[in-house]
Amino acid sequence: MSYRGRTIDLRRLLVGVFAALVAVLAIAAPTAAQDDGSTTVGGTLRVRNAESEDLLLEGVELTVTDADGNEIGVAVSDDKGEWELEVPGGGEYVITLGIDSLPAGVTLEEENGNVVTRTIEAGEKNGAVFRFVGEATTSISIQSVQLFVDGLKLGLIIAMCSIGLSLIYGTTGLVNFAHGEMVTFGATTAYLIHVIWHPGGFFGSLIVAALITFVLSAVAGGLFNEGVWKPLRHRGASLISALVVSIGFSILFRYIFQFFYGARTLFYTDYQLQEQISVFGLFGITPKDAILMLLSVLILVAVAYGLERTRAGKAMRAVADNRDLAESSGIDVENVIRGVWIVGSALAGLGGVFFGMTESIGWEMGFRILLLMFAGITLGGLGTAYGALLGSLIIGVFIQMSTLSIGPWPGMPPELKNVGALIVLVVILLVRPQGLLGKAERIG
Amino acid sequence: MDWGAILDNVLRGLIGESFIFIGLAAMGLNLHFGYTGLLNFGQAIFMAAGAYGLSMTVVTLSVEISWFPGSFWFGCFMGVIVFPLILALIMGVPTLRLRADYLAIVTIAVAEMFRLLARSPTFDRWTGSSDGLTGFADDFYALSPFESGNRYFFNLFIGNQMFVVIVGWITLALAALLTWLLIRSPWGRVIKAIREDEDAALSLGKNVWSYKMQALILGGIFGALGGMLRAIGTQSAQPDNFITDITFFAWVALILGGAGKVGGPIIGASLLYGVLNFSDVLLRQLIRNDYIPESVMEGTQVGQVRFMLIGLGLILLAAFRPQGIFGNKEEMALDDR
Question: Which SS3 state, helix, strand or coil, does residue A157 take?
Fold first, then answer.
């Protein structure tokens, strides 16, 4: 099949049934006086889908009868979902919505909700309300945009978390399995300050808690390096024993978190239940998520700038590239490694807060995210900072978009979203083990 | 304090079911890591393969697929051979040519992947999702010579448990014997050569990749045996019995007893469960008798302490005594490379 042929086919497939969850709305037009003194009843028929966009229902038939059952007239909603019908005067009227004329997938909230009895004020424009629920249709292209944006959000957070993992690997050769617990540390520390301790006022806000967490994560990362990894390096411990030590810490920390916070799913109290705003009718996003995405981009750009332009950043890249050469050219490698631990942990901690804000907080969140980070940095190229960034973004987008149902593909069930990322991890090692940006010699 | 209960629990730890399950898994890891140098962090899913190979064959596959045989013994074949073989290929093919840490990442990822698949309601028809599968072990217990109401072996085990434990001991002994024979064979010398220096083995014309794959499969089969016995012992196969952390129970057992020694995993698993059961029952007694106030710790948190001890054990062993309690540094230590 030619490329052109495929695109046309896709368009044909566009109108897929989208399982919208919330779908209330109709006409809430208040009664208002008419200029010409005529009496009308009417409104706008809309259904809101999961992306908070209003779909206007066109071609729906509405029959108006008076109290005695005599038909007054039939109105059909136009392409804006609007309908209006003039009635002889005030009194009780029955408005019946033709269910058969509703677009596929749209149903009424209540079984007999298509029949509305309304007392109509003479000389005014009267509104009538129908409540719709259930499934609404959205084109696949619109769904794709929404899922792409959701995926970018997830990818940005994974990227923030995984930069440290990748840089620690690059500079010390350690695959730090306890890095996921830095993410949990961040999310739970902010929870501790913001929800459990909750000092109130300025210091009780999540923003301040996030900033304190950022600093505490940096300190924790620095101490972790000084207390554990530096002594291990100095004793000449092999990479494999260091790897096993990191697994040990991962398990130890995880169950310490469970010990203190329990196995429940936790949420921050600020910025919950925000309404999604529609962006150009393309996708919906809560203001909180929009700001988080913007902040992540700024932070990642700052990290990239720091790596490219600052002395410390250049030293980090030099050590990651060739440790011996960097050391012989006068770079204090231990100092660089300390910096990588501090920066990487701070970013992971903040990433944890972001993840907690967009999804939820839990004792094993770090382990789940760790596997996504592995998928991201392996895809991008183990040990490279930009590889971690690129790979994480792709993984985030892939995870969300895999739920899209296209043609014969039914869409990944939500509980299996992460499985897709893990399959990518296995497949990338089969076809290009050095990752997208990695150098072939590193994997030997 | 009920010292009798403490003693009973410690004894059960030293020789009981958990010791057998984890001992077999650790024996598989010993083949992987101790002799071949492979970092398998997904042994829990090999255990799950044994459990699900059996239970799916008997309970779901034979019901959903008309030609599929559903006997207990065919289930054992699926659980011990077919499922672990498929898993080993999925884990090994992409990674065995790469450096050791890639295998570590992929095994842990594949383990989590299959656990999520087994948990998913999407495949409920095949795996029973998070409730798992039950009702596949009747044919096994029908063979039991023990009275189900009686207690045996210093009153430690009731009839059915006794049967599982005896079969487990025999399996452990046979697995140890097989390992002992294999390591003394030319095959064993090749895999040890791969562990010491992969390039040297390559230069002798050995197909290193193939040997590593064979070791991965065989070690996986040992793990699957452990998982299958566990499923039979609890009469259920459940995804959450095979979380990734279970892998590291086997790792602690392996390093504790000494990697690269035939008896290492057995001694390690026995000691590990002796210590874990001791800490469990001691903490519970201390809480029950109010030596530890509720504000510090509740009974439900004892299970978390168990996992913390595993983490701590891994850290301390890997950092300070990689050769294990009885091992010597020459034969095999975590520090080899």
Answer: helix
Structure tokens that stand for B278 in this block: 């001791």
Q: Which residues in chain A are contacts of B335 at CB distance < 8 A?
A: 237-238, 240-241
What is the three-class DSSP state of A78?
coil
Calpha distance B313→B325 (Å, rounded): 12
Write out chain B in H/E/C secondary structure.
CCHHHHHHHHHHHHHCHHHHHHHHHHHHHHHHHHHCCCCCCCHHHHHHHHHHHHHHHHHHHHHHCCCCCCCHHHHHHHHHHHHHHHHHHHHHHHHCCCCHHHHHHHHHHHHHHHHHHHHCHHHHHHHCHHHCEECCCHHHHCCCCCCCCCEECCCCEEHHHHHHHHHHHHHHHHHHHHHHHHHHCHHHHHHHHHHHCHHHHHHCCCCHHHHHHHHHHHHHHHHHHHHHHHHHHHCEECHHHHCHHHHHHHHHHHHHHCCCCCCHHHHHHHHHHHHHHHHHHHHHHHHHCCCCCCCCCCHHHHHHHHHHHHHHHHHHHHHHCCCCCCCCCCCCCCCCC
The size of the A-B interface in CB pairs under 8 A is 135
Chain B contact for A129 (CB, 8 A cutoff): no
How far apart are the C-alpha atoms of A375 and A418, rounded to whole Å?
A: 10
Q: Could you tell me which residues come within 8 angstroms of residue A296 by beta carbon, excluding any fewer than 6 positions away?
A: A156, A157, A159, A160, A354
Say yes or no: B228 contacts chain A, CB-CB below 8 A: no
User: CB contact, 8 Å: A346 with chain B?
Assistant: no
Burial zone of A389 (CB within 10 Å; 0-12 exposed, 13-18 middle, 19+ buried): buried
The predicted structure's pLDDT at residue B237: 95
Q: Please indicate if any CB of chain B lies within 8 Å of the CB of A252.
A: yes
Alpha-carbon span B178 to B303, nearest angstrom: 35
Both tokens of A5, joined, read 């042929």
CA distance A151 to chain B (A): 20
Question: Would you state the pLDDT for residue A442?
Answer: 47
Answer whether B334 sits within 8 Å of A444, measured CB to CB. no
Report field, pTM of the whole predicted structure over 0.95 = no
The reply to whether residue A245 touches residue B109, judged by beta carbons under 8 angstroms, is no
User: What is d(CA A37, CA A31) in angstroms, rounded to the nearest whole number?
Assistant: 13
From B98's Cα to the closest Cα of chain A, the distance in A is 6
Query: If residue A302 lies in a helix (H) or strand (E), which one and from where to where?
Result: helix A287-309
Span B58-84, pLDDT tens digits: 999 998 998 999 899 999 999 999 999
Q: Does A249 touch chain B (CB under 8 A)?
A: yes
- Would you call A45 helix, strand, or coil by DSSP? coil
Q: Is B44 exposed, middle or buried (0-12, 13-18, 19+ CB in 10 A)?
A: buried
CB B223 within 8 A of CB B46: yes
ipTM of the predicted assembly exceeds 0.90: yes
Whole-Å CA distances, B117 to A272, A390, B45, B79, B95: 31, 27, 12, 17, 22
Reported as a single tens digit per residue, the pLDDT across A244-274 is 999 999 999 999 999 999 888 898 888 777 7
B12 vs A388: CA distance, rounded Å = 47
| More confident site: B97 or B249 | B249
| Dist. CA B226–CA B30, nearest whole Å | 14
The 8-class DSSP code of residue A229 comes to: I
